[in-house]
Structures are given as structure tokens and as C-alpha cells.
Write a structure and sequence with these properties.
Helix content is 40%, strand content 18%. It is built from 16 helices and 15 strands. Strands 10-11-9-12-13-8-14-15 form an eight-stranded mixed β-sheet, with helices on both faces. Strands 3-4-2-5-6-1-7 form a seven-stranded parallel β-sheet, with helices on both faces.
Length: 415
């Protein structure tokens, strides 16, 4: 690996997915890159493409990066600009000045285009962008792109244009992505580091009981002193209330909502990266793709779609760092917590007190020696009969109940 590139990016070393992609990028096959959130997937393709560009400089549009949201357009642009500072990079997003951009394209050469599929297709349709001679077409945060059905505008272009190398980058391969990969990627090379990545994230759950979520959040914020914390709120109507709560506590907090104009959202993200805030209250607009380096995540409530829980958690513990995720569990959230546990999330239940965070020890009844002897006294049948396990269990429970009743009566009598 070129030390100059590491220095330029201010990286100490490459992540696993970056190392694997750099090693295998030279293959003639298309690539599908799958790695957990926060492991540096965007740089995994930017670095080898930069090395290729530097080795063989050509004029014209050579690289197109498709991303699902305006926020990701800006983020990927900033990451690309770090390496490709000597190349003309243009962004294509929702509220851009279309006429001004057309005028610029008519008088300038473009090397790299970054945009949402809808906007990229629009500029191709009006004749101001062409995929002819394209060397690389990237589908970044692809699972989100297909969830939102953003790829429909680009399908006709894929079928008619002669493209270079196709690279799909995602945190997972969903069912909606499989037909697309099969149709356009052919015998692709898969780079999957999902099971090899060691994510140091601890999950904590706080059962709300009869208390309000706002009350619990306030208590939790009095205890934590995070480097940077993202508070995810699922219900749009609750977000201003949570934001106001933190303002009343005189905390340095920003609010990020899908209802905000693109310009305002971009400014909030910029200020977050400049460390102007300690807290960010947001919806799931910030759960996918945006490179926030959070030390703590608080789930004010659980997302409607549980896969977003993984993406929320992925805003912390990034690039080998540790992270903590706190989830407020409501009365109707038990099944969701169970389903997340089945997916491999290990929750540690905690309680909040004036002295701080207290771990909740699961109630496990330890058997006494006398009770063990009672269990051993229940003889198993010599012949296995239908439902023998159930009947044996019932006998043990009955014998233990009787033993404990006698012990209780004996202890009471001796007082």
C-alpha cells in the first residue's frame, strides 16, 4: 500500500474490507463488496480506483458513483475530494441549480460524477452526461438504494450503455438486490467481510415500565458524558419534543429531520463533523451511510423496521473503535428485543439511579443441595413411553413444590 495515500487520508492502516478490496480489485470481474456499517466501504473502492487513475490518466467521465440520498452525495464527494483533488468532480442531487449546472457542463470537462440515480439519469436524458467510455460505475449503500426503489431510472441506461467495471457496495445483500445482481453483474467477485469484522459495540436496554421515555432519557443524559451521541427517534411528532428536552437541559444539541431543506441538512451535518455539538437528535435519515463518528447511540424508541436497528448501531464502533448503544424498551417492545437477540444482539439490562448505571442481574433460582437430591429421587421410567419427558418434568416440579412447602413450614415453626 502506498504510504502517500495513507498520509493523504490520515489513515494509520487499512480496514479489513479495504485490504481485501485493494488486493482483489484488479480482477476483470465485476465486484460485490459486503461489509458491516462503519468499516470504511467507500474508501475500499476509492483507493484502488485512484491508483488506477494515477497510473493511466484519461480525459472524460470515467467514474460514476450512485448513492441513495442527497446527504450521501455530499459525504461521498468530501471523501472523494480528499484523494482526487486534481480531478473535476461534480455532484448531482435533489435541489441543485439545474440550469447553472448545465451551463457549467457545456463549458467544462468532468472526470467523476456523484449523485442520486434520479438526478444522474436526468442529466443523461438531456444529453449533458454520457456513460460512453465509463471505466467504473459504483452502487454505494446499495441495500438502501433498492429499499427506496431508486434504481428504476437507471435500469434503461444499464441495458443500453457499454459500461466498464460494476462495483456494488452494501452492508447486506437483500432479496430485492439479487435479481439485479444476477442480470447485470454476471460471474462477479464477492468480497464479504461480515463475519470477520470485529465490532466492539456494547448494547444496553432500559425497561421503561410505567415511566415515560422522556423521563428515562433525561436521567440517562444526566449520567452520560459522551464524546458525541446520536439520539434516534422513530416518530416524527416526537422529534421536536426530544430536541426541546435537550435544549432545556442546556446541552449542545442539533436536530436533523427529513422535513428540513437540503441546504439546512447539509449545514447541520457539516457542523456535526466540526464537533460543534455533543448530541444530535434525528430520525432514521441518519441511520444509513452518513459517516458520523459517534461514541454513543440512544434509541429513544425502536425503529419500525428492525434492520434499521443494525444501521443505527453502525453509527458507533466505527473503524475499530468502541461504542455503546442504549435502547429504551417500552411495554410493547419485548418481541422486538427478542427478535434482535436472535439476530445476535446481546442486550445487557440496566437500571438508572442517582449513583449511576446499575446492571440488572437476571433472576436465576439456584437449587439447594436438598433440592438436587429430590430431583435425583424421581426415577426415570425403564421403558420410554409417549410424553415421558413431560410427565417426568411434572413429577419433578410436584416433588420440588412439596419439598419447599415443608421447608417453609419448618422454618416458620422454628421462629
Amino acid at each position: 500500500m502506498d504510504k502517500k495515500i495513507l498520509e493523504k487520508l490520515k489513515f494509520e492502516k487499512l480496514s479489513l474490507v479495504q485490504e481485501r478490496t485493494l488486493k482483489e480489485f484488479d480482477t476483470n470481474e465485476n465486484l460485490v463488496i459486503v461489509a458491516p456499517t462503519g468499516t470504511g466501504k467507500t474508501h475500499s473502492y476509492l483507493i484502488p480506483i485512484f491508483k488506477k487513475f494515477e497510473a493511466n490518466k484519461k480525459e472524460g467521465l470515467k467514474l460514476v458513483i450512485l448513492v441513495p440520498t442527497n446527504e450521501l452525495v455530499f459525504q461521498v464527494y468530501e471523501m472523494t475530494k480528499e484523494l482526487f483533488s486534481n480531478y473535476n468532480i461534480r455532484t448531482f442531487y435533489g435541489s441543485m441549480d439545474r440550469q447553472r449546472e448545465i451551463k457549467w457542463l457545456e463549458n467544462n470537462q468532468i472526470d467523476i460524477a456523484i449523485g442520486t440515480p434520479i438526478k444522474i439519469e436526468e442529466f443523461i436524458a438531456n444529453g449533458h452526461l454520457s456513460f460512453q467510455g465509463l471505466e467504473y460505475l459504483i452502487f454505494d449503500e446499495a441495500d438502501m438504494m433498492f429499499d427506496l426503489k431508486f434504481m428504476e431510472p437507471i435500469f434503461p441506461i444499464l441495458k443500453t450503455s457499454k459500461l466498464g467495471k460494476l462495483v456494488l457496495v452494501s452492508a447486506s445483500i437483500t432479496e430485492t438486490m439479487k435479481p439485479f445482481i444476477k442480470e447485470f453483474f454476471g460471474a462477479y467477485k464477492l468480497i464479504d467481510t461480515t463475519l470477520q469484522e470485529d465490532l466492539s459495540i456494547k448494547h444496553y436496554v432500559i425497561k421503561a415500565g410505567t415511566r415515560s421515555r422522556g423521563f428515562i432519557l433525561k436521567d440517562l443524559l444526566k449520567i452520560l458524558n459522551p464524546y458525541f451521541c446520536i439520539i434516534f427517534v422513530s416518530k416524527k411528532e416526537d422529534q421536536p419534543e426530544v430536541f426541546n428536552l435537550l435544549n432545556e437541559m442546556e446541552l449542545k444539541v442539533a436536530n436533523l429531520s427529513g422535513d428540513m431543506p437540503v441546504r439546512v441538512r447539509r449545514q447541520v451535518i457539516k457542523e456535526v463533523h466540526e464537533l460543534k455539538y455533543q448530541y444530535l437528535v434525528t430520525s432514521d435519515i441518519a441511520s444509513r451511510g452518513i459517516d458520523f463518528d459517534a461514541s454513543h447511540i440512544i434509541n429513544y424508541d425502536l425503529p419500525y423496521h428492525l434492520e434499521y436497528f443494525i444501521h443505527r448501531s453502525g453509527r458507533t464502533g466505527r473503524m475499530g473503535k468502541t461504542g455503546e448503544v442504549y435502547t429504551i424498551q417500552g411495554e410493547n417492545d419485548h418481541r422486538k428485543i427478542q427478535n434482535l437477540s436472535k439476530k445476535g444482539i446481546k442486550f445487557n439490562e440496566i437500571k438508572l439511579s442517582k449513583s449511576g448505571i446499575i446492571p440488572v442481574v437476571p433472576r436465576e433460582r439456584l437449587l439447594k443441595e436438598e433440592e438436587i437430591q429430590v430431583i435425583k429421587s424421581i426415577k426415570k421410567p425403564t421403558k420410554v413411553k409417549p410424553n415421558y419427558r413431560k410427565k417426568n418434568k411434572q413429577q419433578i416440579e410436584k416433588a420440588l413444590k412439596e419439598h419447599r412447602r415443608k421447608e417453609y413450614a419448618k422454618n416458620r415453626k422454628s421462629r
